[in-house]
Design goal:
Blueprint: E1 2-4, H1 7-19, E2 26-28, H2 34-42, E3 49-52, H3 68-95, E4 99-104, H4 117-136, E5 142-149, H5 157-161, H6 166-172, H7 182-193, E6 203-206, E7 211-213, E8 216-217
Parallel strand pairs: 1-2, 3-4, 4-5, 5-6
Antiparallel strand pairs: 7-8
Helix pairs in contact: 2-3, 3-4
This protein binds NADP nicotinamide-adenine-dinucleotide phosphate.
NADP nicotinamide-adenine-dinucleotide phosphate is lined by residues 4-6, 9, 29-32, 53-56, 77, 81, 104, 106, 149, 151-152, 154-157, 160, 182.
């Protein structure tokens, strides 16, 4: 079951999955809308795995100059969106007898960087949800996995961060020979969710080889 706000893009991904022999269904959903999330969840027969991936960054301003509206929007999707889907699906995940929750965090949820302010704060929030939830579910048959990717070259992440400025977005990956891709992250998701139910990956940090640390990136000239 694939969800996002844009139905055309959902249909495209579903088409790729079905044409390679998989099963896919789609549902148009904005995770910041709690009642819509609840309605979506109520319509599902069961839920074994939840991958809470929706999120993103808006702006790269210093704290001194950043807009509270941007911070609020990032908190809404990265933290409250995550909260909404977890709350709505948790009863079904528990009922499955072996549920898995994957939260898409970020290295920004573990370390700060200049110009990251609101996104760093929001992803630290996602990290706090993962850590807290795991403690609270310790006696339930549901595992909580947090993925924390570093630099991933995806369709829109950097373009959204720089408000449509494709030049600034491209500069993020300039000279980096092989940033991670969405397929690399999907591969990690597939691996963690297919471990036996007793085996939990609390936190997995994923980075391209060229990114030794948040600030230490090898760029070819
Ligand atoms: N790219 C990176 O370097 C990087 C690094 C670390 C972590 N991450 C995290 O990885 C996740 C995916 O990011 P990405 O790089 O793939 O960015 P992306 O290309 O902008 O994709 C974001 C995805 O989330 C969906 N989405 C956004 N807001 C939503 C909402 N309110 N309700 C439902 N769906 C929503 C988008 O679909 P619609 O717009 O159609 O809703 C889209 O499918 C995010 O949580 C991001 O913070 C990315």
């Amino acid at each position: 079951m694939l969800t996002a706000r844009r139905a055309d893009r959902l249909a495209e991904v579903a088409g790729q999955i079905t044409s390679s022999g998989g099963l896919a269904d789609t549902y148009q959903l904005d995770v910041t809308d709690q009642s819509a999330v609840n309605k979506f969840a109520a319509g599902l027969d069961r839920c074994d795995v939840l991958v809470a991936n929706a999120g993103g960054a808006i702006g790269a301003d210093y704290v001194a100059d950043s807009s509270p509206a941007d911070w609020l929007a990032m908190y809404e999707v990265n933290v409250l969106g995550t909260l909404h889907v977890v709350q709505a699906l948790l009863p079904k995940l528990i009922a499955s007898g072996a549920g898995t929750i994957v939260l898409m965090g970020s290295t920004a949820g573990l370390i700060s960087y200049e110009g990251g302010g609101g996104y760093v704060a929001a992803k630290h929030g996602t990290h706090a949800v993962a850590e807290t939830l795991r403690l609270e579910l310790f006696d339930k048959p549901v595992r909580v996995i947090e993925l924390a990717p570093g630099m991933v070259k995806t369709d829109e992440f950097a373009v959204n961060r720089f408000r449509g400025d494709t030049g600034k977005a491209a500069a993020v990956y300039a000279g980096v020979k092989e940033p991670l891709t969405a397929m690399d992250v999907a591969d990690a998701v597939a691996w963690v969710v297919t471990r036996p139910a007793h085996f939990n990956v609390d936190l997995m940090v994923l980075r391209p080889r060229a990114q030794a640390a948040q600030h230490k990136v090898f760029r070819e000239q």
